[in-house]
Amino acid sequence: MKKFVVTLALAMLAAGAAQAADLGGKLLKIGSDTTSPPMESVDPASGQIVGFDIDVVNAICTKIHCQAEFVTTGWDGIFAALDQGNFDLVASGVSITDERKKAMDFSDPYIVNSQVILTRAEDQGMTLEQFKAQGRKLSAQANTTDAQVAEGLVGKENVAAYDTFSAAIIALKNKDVDGVVINGANAAAYEREFAGQLVAAIKGLQSDPIGLVFRRGDANAAAFNEGLQEIKKDGTLDKLIAKYWGLK
């Protein structure tokens, strides 16, 4: 009898673990700075928010039975808005850093991204050493790891920080700066948009794991990790990476 009770208890624990990743169709609001294709952007034709992060969250929700409603939010205030309860999580190509982990919880990483320097086409042969030696100026989106990398390369006094990626790109095109530090995942989209004008000339500056962001102690983080493991195991994540970048 004792053995039966132990077995039953273990079975109940196993069942409970399986149910932990079932959110019962719950609607979750997701904050996203929708100005960073292909991670997330607004499709001008449909007005819908689209991109890699959106597909990843929707794939996870399929596994853990939730619904996602994406909310466009400016990067500068996105973490404060999460903390205030304006939405349930953030999916916006967020680098997992030790400093950020002090204030918020992250999912496991779902992609590793590396920064590059986007330059005008005429500078595409320039090396990082030449860029530094010639006192070139960089731009980046403010309050990002990109901005931190830029400051580490050329000094804070030679970095112009902008509220959006698009403003940094305009500064580059107008020759106000000589390069934009940007996530490699985003750089390809700008190379396509400005073909023949802008290129990712200097690559592999720093690699960061990317994760979803939750308020401290939010139990949904564990559920999303279970869903993330499922889309890794069944090949869904690999297919999404191939869809946007043509590689695994």
UniProtKB/TrEMBL annotation:
Solute-binding protein family 3/N-terminal domain residues: 27-248
One cellular component (GO) term of this entry: periplasmic space
InterPro entries, alphabetized: Solute-binding_3/MltF_N (IPR001638)
This protein's UniProt keywords: Signal
Family annotation (SUPFAM superfamilies): Periplasmic binding protein-like II
Location(s) in or outside the cell: Periplasm
Signal peptide: 1-20
Pfam families: SBP_bac_3
Annotated protein name in UniProt: Putative amino acid uptake ABC transporter periplasmic solute-binding protein protein
Species of provenance: Rhizobium freirei PRF 81
